Amino acid sequence: MARPLESGRADRPPGRLTPQVAAVLRPELDALAEDIMAEIRRTIPAYARLPERGERQELRLGVEQVLRTFVDRISGSEESRERRDELCRWLGRGEAYRGRSLDALQAAYRIGVQVAWRRVAEIGQRHKLSSAVMSQLAGALFAYIDELASLSVEGFQQARARVGDSRAEARRRLLRLLVGRPRPSKAVLARAAEAAGWRMPAEVVPVAVPPKARTAPEALDAGVLRDLDRAEPFLIVPGPLDEERLAMLTAALPERRGALGPSVPPTEAADSLRWARRTLALMDAGILAVTGLARAEDHLLELWLLADGALLDQVARRRLAVLSGMGDGRRRRLIETLGAWLESEGNAVETADRLQVHPQTVRYRLRQITDVFGDRLGDPDSRFELEAVLRAERLRRGGLPELPKTGSPDVSGR
Prior knowledge:
Helix content is 60%, strand content 5%.
C-alpha cells in the first residue's frame, strides 16, 4: 500500500508541498487542460464560438501554462512565474482590445478551478494523499486562481487606459475631419470613423451650443461626438433627429438652448454646423425670436439673407443710394411701400392692405418711387436685389437701411 504523502516540515512556506506531490500531479496536466477547455467551451458562450485556431488556441496555451506554473510553485520553483504573470496580463489585455468585459475570462477562471479541484481530489484519493496535504492543496489552488484573476484585471485595466487614450485621440481627429476644411472624402472619413470606433451613419445633425453652457454629457448616447470645451462648443448627433434623439438632447442641455443644423451626410457636417452656429448667433442678437432648440432649416432664408453683413451693406448702399438724400421719415415710408409692393408682386391694393393705408396713398408713393428708381423697377434682376435687401434690412434693423444722408428731414407726412 502506498504511503500517504505528507506536507513536510512545519516551516515550509505557504503553498509549497513536497516534491512528491508535484510529481503525482504533473502527468495529469495535459488531460486536465483538455477537461478545463471542454467545460469552458460548454458553459461560456463567448468561448464556445471561438474558432479552432486563433483565440481558442491561445486560451488553451494559457490554461496549460498556468497549470504548469501551479505545479512548479507547489514544488518550490518560481522559474515559470514571470511568464505566467505576463500571460495572465496578456489575456486581460486581449479582452479589452476586443471590446469585451472581463466577465467571460473571470468565469473561465472559476470553471477552471472547479474542474481542477475535482481532478485533484481524484488524484488525492488515488494516491492516498493525507487530509493535511489535500487541505494545503486546496488553499494553494484557490489562492492561485485569485492571483491569476488579479493579474488579468491588471492587464485589462492597462489596456483599457491605452485604448481609451487612443480612442479619445481618434475621436478628436474624426471631429476635426468632420467639421474642418477641406471637406473630407468618404473613404478618409470611413477610415477615421473605424479608428475611432464610431459607426458612421448615413446622416448627422450638428448642434451648436452656447459657450460655457450648462451641459450633462452623461445623458448623451455613446455615438454622439462632442467638443464642449472650445470657444464654440458643438455636438455631432448620428442619424436623423427623431423624437428619441431630441429628448436626449433636451436632457443633455438643461438650459435647452442651442441650434440644430440641417440633417446632412457626414461629409457635409461642416456646412451644417456653420449654419447652426449662425442660427445661434442670430438668436443671441435677438433677430430670430426663438427659444429652446432652434432648427436652422426653419430659418434658411434668414441665414442666406444675413450671411454676410458687410456685403449686404454694400448692396443696400448701391441699390438704395437714390434715397440717401431724403429725410428719415420720407425714406422710411418709401422703403416700406417699395418692400410691400415687391412682396405683393406689384398689386397696389394688396400693398395697401399690408401697410394698412388707403390704396390712393400707395399709388401716390409709388409715383414717387418710380420717379426715384426709374426703369430699374422694370428690370427683374433689380427688383430681386431690392426685395432681398429690404427683407434682410427688415430682419436686421427693423426696416431702415443705414445710408449716407445729404438732405434734411421730411415732415410732409405723405
